[in-house]
Amino acid sequence: MHVFALLSWPFYATIVGIKLCLLLPLLWKWKYPLSTIPGPRMAAWTRLWWSKTMYFGRSAEVLIRLNREYGPVVRIGPKTVIVNDPHTIRRVLAVNSGYVRGPWFDSLRTDPRVSNVVSERDPKKHQQCRQILAGAIWMTLLDEQQRSSKESKSEFRLNLSKVLPYLSMDIITHICIDESFGNVMTDTDQYELLKTLTTAMVVQQYRASLPELNTLLLWIGRLPMLRDVMYPSANSPGGLGQLMQILEEKVRQKTAATHTQSQTRNMLDSFLSKGLDTGHAASEVLVVLFSAVGATAYTLQGIIRGIISNPSVHLTLQREIDMLVRDQGVGASDLVSDTPLRRIPYLQACISEGVRMYPVITQLREQVVPPEGDNLHGYFVPGGTFVALNGHSSQFDPTFGNDLELYQPERWLIDDRILLTKMQRNLDLNFGYGSSKCLGANLAEIEMNKTIFELFRIYSVVLGNPERPWVSRGDFVLADFNVILTKRSPHGQTNGVSCS
Ligand code: HEM
Q1: Residue 52: how many other CB atoms lie within 10 Å
Q2: 460 lines ligand 1 (CB under 6 A)
Q3: Is 267 exposed, middle or buried (0-12, 13-18, 19+ CB in 10 A)?
Q4: Residues comprising the binding site?
Q5: Is 69 or 275 the better-scoring residue by pLDDT?
Q6: I need a surface site. Which of 24, 87, 189, 289 has the fewest CB within 10 A?
Q7: How close is the Cα of 431 to the center of ligand 1, in Å?
Q8: How far is 204 from 107, CA to CA, in rounded Å?
Q9: How much is the pLDDT for 146?
Q10: Does 451 contact ligand 1 (Cβ within 6 A)?
């Protein structure tokens, strides 16, 4: 019998039957039991649509639209749903909720072999990491004033997307290793840390959007010859390798000095006193640098944009600042500590509104549903499903009132204490919650208070390019946020540019 005689219809039918048998469970797994949850059509089959959204810089806008269009639970991947309700987000992130971090967090590793505080998925190990870091950050919390403007001209243009990350970097390196990098003074991105942060963020987001690809890359990255190319180490080419060498050298110096000097002073000292080895201590410092700089610089830019886009807000803020300066008898070059700044209601309202309007958490930060499953807004989601947290959309919750697309500090100046407490709780989600709460929130608050206060005390600020205030790619890395600063007179009147 000729071999082609085998290719008759019963043969084809058998092949198709076998394929269907193999494929159906797979299709079933893809489609169900999340099939009742609404969402973009492609999402039931693949997460590639999300990678495409990021590529076009539309992630922030799409995150807001998703829950608006489909409701409080949206299916965004074959195995992933996203929620935006602040109460549900808190429930998922609560300590002992049963939820654990998903493979999304593997994309935050700086070493394929070892996890760090932001990427650790094992709840116990994560808590241990947090304890070490929390102690270190609290102990070394900014205890001295930082002032770093070398400009003395009365009017000048400044690119805040460059200057604010430089400032945050100088502050955090001072805290971590007792040595400010001097980015602001030299107007240089020392060790190309910001350049690395900017590109690493893009890579991390794509890797996080495709967990299977990330698992493969983690595996490849363990090969010694590729590790130094794919992950930061003292052997990495360029500025980051140089920085790792410096950090490791600092660790070695500290270790050598331990016999003569046992007092814990900076964050590095604190890590070492907890028994971290050289490589681990250096890479945790790097993680703190990355966590602190991008988030703080972005939030500051958001707050400033909100203030200077609204002339009446700008004017009211300066009036309140001037009042404090007068009441406290503060001289033109005196520095004001953080405590009185927390008592200027309008300053605090401007900061809160900026944090709300420009949330740092533009990413999915997926958590895994506990084995018994969970009920999310009436939908059953089985154990193992990934639940992404829509931090962006949570800041448009009705608790915050009306006109949520508008920057309105006044929404925070109400008499209703109960409502204010609810608003504050929802706002606090911008710093994470429960087992993942930001470890630098206190430091971030000090930086925000002091930067905004000093900036508007000394200068009047206007947008350099009102048509396109900044260039955003949908995450918290911004470019070209240019502003024009005009020095104010010591009694609080603007020289030149008016705010009307
Ligand atoms: C306005 C500025 C900041 C914002 C909005 C912010 C926001 C956040 C958020 C949302 C998380 C939670 C991440 C998660 O869910 O896994 C987080 C974690 C973290 N933040 Fe911040 N952060 C800011 C500034 C800082 C600063 C200044 C530092 C360092 C001194 C810092 C250090 C950390 C660390 C170490 C973690 C990891 C905690 C963990 O994974 O357990 N952050 N931050």
Answers
A1: 12
A2: no
A3: buried
A4: 438
A5: 69
A6: 24
A7: 6
A8: 6
A9: 37
A10: no
Residue 344 binned pLDDT confidence (cut-offs 50, 70, 90): very high
Ligand 1 pocket, residue 75 CB under 6 Å: no
Q: At what angle do helices 441-458 and 160-177 cross, to 10 degrees?
A: 130
Which atom of ligand 1 lies closest to the CA of 435? 41
Please say whether the beta carbons of 18 and 11 come within 8 A: no
Tokens of 351: 């900061």
- DSSP assignment of 191-215 equals GGHHHHHHHHHHHHHHHHH-HHHHH
Instruction: Please give the pLDDT value at position 134.
Output: 63
| Bridge partners of residue 483, in order along the sequence | 158, 463
The protein residue whose alpha carbon is closest to atom 37 in ligand 1 is: 118
- Percent of the chain residues past pLDDT 70, beyond the cut: 84
Q: Annotated binding site for heme: which residue ranges?
A: 438
Contact 462, 496 (CB under 8 A): no
Q: Edge-to-edge strand order for the sheet containing 459-463?
A: 155-159, 482-487, 459-463
pLDDT higher than 50, residue 142: no
Q: Residue 279 and residue 277: Cα distance in Å, rounded?
A: 6
- Residue 384 CB: number of other CB atoms within 10 A? 12
Best residue among 438, 442, 443, 446 to mutate for probing ligand 1's pocket (most ligand atoms within 8 Å of CB) is: 438
- Assign domain 32-487 one CATH number from 1.10.630.10, 3.40.50.410, 3.40.1790.10, 3.40.50.300: 1.10.630.10
**Alpha-carbon distances, residue 111 vs 8, 106, 108, 220, 282 (angstroms):** 55, 10, 9, 12, 12
Distance 292 CA to ligand 1 centre (A): 7
Neighbouring CB atoms inside 10 A of 253's CB total 10
CB 350 near ligand 1, within 6 Å: no
Q: Which amino acid is at 346?
A: Y
Residue matched to tokens 């794509």: 206
Q: Where are the domains of the chain?
A: 32-487
Among 269, 431, 444, CA closest to 360: 431
- Quote the pLDDT of residue 500: 29
- Ligand 1 centroid from CA 438, angstroms: 4
Give the pLDDT band of residue 491 (cuts 50, 70, 90). Answer: low
Q: Is 107 in the pocket of ligand 1 (CB under 6 A)?
A: no
Q: What's the number of CA atoms in the CB half-sphere (13 Å) around residue 121?
A: 15
Atom of ligand 1 minimally distant from the CA of 129: 41
Ligand 1 atom 23, closest CA: 295
pTM of the model: 0.84
Give the number of other Cβ atoms within 10 Å of residue 413's Cβ.
12
361 CB under 6 A from ligand 1? yes
